[in-house]
Fold:
Amino acid sequence: MKNKWLLAALLAGNSWFGGWATDVDPVIMRVNNKDIHKSEFEYIYNKNSQQQIDHKSLDEYVTLFKNYKLKVAEAEAMGIDTTSAFKNELAGYREELAKPYLIDASVDDRLAHEAYDRMKEDVEVSHILIGLNARNP
Structure:
């Protein structure tokens, strides 16, 4: 039943609070004394729904999101987020995610065109024929 109210609050958004709350990002849940705002939930929901093949209903996703936040809070309470193993793994993920953004596609395209144009000019030959005028003695 709690998820139904949360779902209704998420869908209704700021309209429930009248005109005075149109620019306020409402808190939809609190985990370990940290506020979780509607905008954070919407961002993660929209990002994940685009990437997943098996789309979840909003009710199912609210439960998954809540469990995710509880697991993160527990890991932070245990100090897992400060271990060197965690920091190294996180740095690896960041590096992998950054790679596509660090490659300049225009440079790659220019180099590919340059190589293609060069292929049209440079020709490999195995023998050369030279035409000679035949002289009759």
